Amino acid sequence: MIYTRYIPTDRIRSMKIYINKDRLSLSAIVERERPDLAITGNFYGPDWKPVCPLKADGQVVEYDPEYAYPALCWDQGPDVTVDVVSKGGLSACQNYIANCAGIYHGQDQPMIFGADVGGRRGRTGWGLKDGALALVAFPDGSDGITPLELRAWAKSQGWNDFILGDGGRKVNYYDREAGTIIEGKDPSQNLILIWLKKEEETPMDGITQRMMTRNPCYTSGRTITTKGVMVHSTATPGIMAQALAQSWDTPTAQAAAHAIVDDTVTLQTLPWTARGGHAGSQAGTANGTHIAFEICEPQECRLLPEEWEPLKRGDTGWAVERLQRELTARGYDPKGIDGSFGPGCDAALRSCQKDLGLEVDGSCGPATLSALADREDSYLAYDPAETQDYFAAAWSHAVALTAHLCETYGLDPMTDVLDHSEGHALGIASNHADVSHWFPRHGRSMDDFRAAVKIALEGEDVSELDTAVDKLSAAGLIDSPDYWKGGDYSADNVKQLLIKWADSL
Ligand SMILES: [Zn+2]
């Protein structure tokens, strides 16, 4: 029995060479990495090192020119590009796995091996067929297959490139969709692991995909039963969407959301039905039920008491500069407004604390912050006017995304959308204050957010509302239908329309 699979490259989300340092079995690797496909890679020597050239994620693991055969070669996405390159093409791509090539670009290649390699046994192979990635596994059995027989088979199937993988007691092959798992008696020294795109990864309008394919929430393959949307804000003020996605795109990341929005972009960072890591590890049952997104907080959110971190000598940065400005405005000289908390700043803060009747400790903790923020135009008070443009842009991205998710997953914006703090109150998320510690600073509540999502959803049928406007106009109830038409059905506008209508009755 020959197991084979052809994968159009646009279905590949991610592909990597797994270096099996711990000599794990295939099932242990599948459990750990959750790939959709796995296949034994190239040969290894008695020292458990690859024999043929191998480069994994930009790192050259092995390069012996004697075995510089053509190689399967690929770069990571957003779109994975797969190719077979001639020997010596190591620098052409980030991942390179060479082995005895049977067919290179349609041409038979010399197959040079001793009797120990060339005999009948189980084998794997990989290559390209009409641009699709091609895999084949012939398990160990009573008869086995020789390299030349396997090449003849690949040729008969129309493969343009065929590279002989490893075999003989170590044919390991896994295909999640087909439900196939073949475990050799021995583990593989290295494997090619492949993750396929999931259906919900089709990009949505206005949403940029930037999947965090290394995050455990992506690689685990765990999914959710979608019951709602949970809205978060980051608590890392000043870090915007691309940078946050970058920092979470590692196997050691402790958290993950499905999307991240800021004032310029909405990023999708996980498949919508992947299990996220946003509601905490203990109480966080919402991880299994909610699609979550983070709204990036501007630098100024550092001034919210819930997010304030005490400042003391040695600290640097934006908040220190604000403290220096505030001390200066109050008549204390911090010896420079440079964002660096030195002895001058320390002395100024202590004098100020003494005059305000605060504990004189040289640390701007919660009590000192509260006292210093209590001045009109204080540099240490969150001023919504400073960030109103940012807030409005991020809010509209968040509303559009939530409306889109409610529509896609049949969710009710009034009952199925909540923030992290509401999730905590319901006992399904950890004890965080977001976003209800921030939205109200801009005069908005989660109820306002849900209402805006509802309007965004229902306002989508503009033609229906335009028809209603025409009717009102024809009945003489409003005089300027053009003013109302074209889709401005924001809450304010609809309210105005109703008032005008009522007045005319
Ligand atoms: Zn949160």
Beta-strand content bin: 15-25%
**What is the count of helical runs?**
15
The radius of gyration over CA amounts to 30 Å
Uncertain runs: none
Largest sheet: 6 strands, antiparallel
- Determine the mean pLDDT: 88
Strand order of the largest sheet: 1-12-11-13-9-10
Brief sketch in words of this structure:
The protein has helices at residues 26-33, 115-118, 147-156, 216-219, 241-248, 318-329, 343-355, 366-373, 384-409, 413-416, 420-425, 446-458, 462-474, 481-484, 491-504, and strands spanning 3-7, 12-19, 37-40, 54-56, 59-62, 71-75, 81-85, 95-98, 101-104, 107-108, 123-129, 132-138, 161-167, 173-175, 180-182, 190-196, 208-209, 228-233, 259-261, 266-268, 290-295, 417-419.
Can you give a write-up of this model?
It is a single chain. With 505 residues, the chain is α+β, with helices and mostly antiparallel strands. The chain has 15 helices and 22 strands. It has a six-stranded antiparallel beta sheet with strand order 1-12-11-13-9-10, covered by helices on one side. Strands 17-20-19-21-18-22 form a six-stranded mixed beta sheet, sandwiched between helices. Strand 19 and strand 20 (266-268) form a beta hairpin. The longest helix has 26 residues, at 384-409. The mean pLDDT is 88. The protein binds zinc ion (ZN). Zinc ion binds at residues 232, 420, 432, 434. The site of zinc ion has 4 residues, from loops.
List the helices and strands and how they pair.
Blueprint: E1 3-7, E2 12-19, H1 26-33, E3 37-40, E4 54-56, E5 59-62, E6 71-75, E7 81-85, E8 95-98, E9 101-104, E10 107-108, H2 115-118, E11 123-129, E12 132-138, H3 147-156, E13 161-167, E14 173-175, E15 180-182, E16 190-196, E17 208-209, H4 216-219, E18 228-233, H5 241-248, E19 259-261, E20 266-268, E21 290-295, H6 318-329, H7 343-355, H8 366-373, H9 384-409, H10 413-416, E22 417-419, H11 420-425, H12 446-458, H13 462-474, H14 481-484, H15 491-504
Parallel strand pairs: 17-20, 18-21, 18-22, 19-21
Antiparallel strand pairs: 1-12, 2-16, 3-14, 3-16, 4-5, 4-8, 6-7, 6-8, 9-10, 9-13, 11-12, 11-13, 14-15, 19-20
Helix pairs in contact: 9-12
Bound molecules: zinc ion.
